[in-house]
Amino acid sequence: MAGGTGIAKRERVSTSTARMIAVGFLLLGVLLGLFDAPGHVEYLIKRSLPLPKFPFRLGLDIQGGTHLTYQADLKNVSPDQYASSMDAVRDVIERRVNLFGVAEPLVAVEHAGGAGGEWRLIVELAGIRDIGSAIRLIGETPFLEFREERTPAERTAILDAQKRGEQKSEAPDFKPTELTGKYIKHADVDFSRNSFQPVVSLELTDAGAKIFGDLTQKNVGKRLAIFLDGAPISAPVVQEAITGGRAQITGNFTAAEAKQLVDRLNAGALPVPITLIAQQSVEASLGSESLARSLYAGAMGFLAVALFMMLWYRLPGILAVAALSLYGVIVLAIFKLIPVTVTVAGIAGFILSIGMAVDANILIFERMKEELRRGRDLDSAIREGFGRAWTSIRDSNISSLITSGILYWLGTSVVRGFALTLGIGIVVSMFSAISVSRTFLLAVTTRRAEKVKFLFLSGFSR
Q1: Whether 190 and 269 share a structural domain
Q2: How far is residue 98's CA from residue 90's CA, in Å, rounded to a whole number?
Q3: Is 137 found in the same domain as 49?
Q4: I need a labelling partner for 331 at 20 to 30 A (CA). Which of 102, 143, 167, 206 fits?
């Protein structure tokens, strides 16, 4: 009697704890559902509560955007550095548009091929329909360069050539050097000790500091001009070699102009100049009607799976559907918080992960049926079923996560979106199947419920 009472007490404690956790899961689901709610529901909630806005980010294929094509000017770059210079331009543009909150920009380098082929930069900005704004967004990243003074003979030769209509793009007074904005480590606003005018202080990288030291050493007593976007803004005379890796830009700036230049330089200075050669507004490839149909198809698929689970597995199937619903709102909340750019490929990854979550529940319930056929009571069958199914669920999901990681690492923008949503879905589905479904089942496990075998697994007494 004492032993039986102790076991019953432990079962009641376990069931009571499971019920409390299950209630917590349900409350979490309601809160996350409100957080995920779109349209007027979201508006009403956030109008009455001081909550921050976390809208879904939609990709270019869903909401459209802007497509820009730039051509790079590599005339002052050695051929063996073309590829690395273009990679640096791509990184700077990506950093720049990310700073402005553009959702998952596509910035890609395109080479026409061959030794003399053109190098271009393709920029796609989701949600930016104003082409003028997009161009300004890219153009605000300046091209900064240092130019050294030409010798009188070089200057005369260029002026004579320009009189003949040649070398019109060449500046007769200064010639480009290797030192450009890509060697800037940090920029800051300072004030001149003599005139108290705002100046821009630059801290150079180690490689830039060496180039700057050599440049100032061979130009002592000569002017070293600073050009911003092709226009001279300062041409100070070098008094002595500067080896500390620091430089200063003076150009009669106002405080606001100096701060704007600092912000732009810190956001990333282009290592080579680029010119816009093509622009177009991209309409959504799916459109609102096609997107609605895709979501409708996904919802119908979920309902079909839910009906199958409830008809075949009875009460556990109903609880599994509740766990899947919680899984859905958790994943959507993660998409908002990271945030993840929702594309058509990303939606496909999310739907696929739902199927994997269903597979995990089916494995668990089939193991439970086997334990019930062996004569175990419902509580131990649930625990044993989850324990036996865990290794299969773990191994299959880990292999899928590895695949997602490889796709994200090696894939393009569209493939990476699919891999990211699939990976997030897999991780959350493991939590949903193992923790949430198990908690819900333990919460309804009572001796009275155990006697109503029809509520649990269909055909378990085969």
Answers
A1: yes
A2: 12
A3: no
A4: 102
What does the alpha-carbon distance between residue 52 and residue 46 come to, in Å, rounded to a whole number?
8
**Domain ranges, residue 372:** 12-56+287-455
Q: Please name the amino acid found at residue 336.
A: K
pLDDT tens-digit readout, 385-402: 888 888 888 888 888 889
Give the β-pairing of 119-126 and 246-249: unpaired
How far apart are the C-alpha atoms of 191 and 186, rounded to whole Å?
A: 16
CA angle 19, 25, 31 (to 5 degrees): 140
Please state the rounded mean pLDDT for residues 100-108.
Answer: 68
Burial of residue 64, with CB atoms counted within 10 A of its CB: 0-12 exposed, 13-18 middle, 19 or more buried: buried
> 142 and 91 in one domain?
yes
Top-confidence range, 2-6, 120-124, 267-271: 120-124
CA distance 76 to 143: 13
β-pairing, 57-58 with 341-342?
parallel
If you search the block for the tokens 């007593």, which residue do you land on? 221
Q: Which two tokens stand for residue 120?
A: 């271009």
- Where does a domain end: 282, 305, 334? 282
365 & 430 share domain: yes
Q: For residues 103 and 126, is the Cβ–Cβ distance under 8 A?
A: yes
Interatomic CA distance for residues 101 and 115, integer angstroms: 37
Q: Which of 180-194, 277-291, 393-407 has the lowest mean pLDDT?
A: 277-291
pLDDT in tens, 5-31: 433 343 433 677 878 888 888 888 888
Q: Are residues 317 and 233 in the same domain?
A: no
Torsion of CA 19, 22, 23, 27, to 10 degrees: 170
Domain match, 301 and 269 both: no
Q: Is the pTM of this model over 0.70?
A: no
* Domain total of the chain: 2
Amino acid at 294: S
Last residue of a domain, one of 264, 282, 300: 282
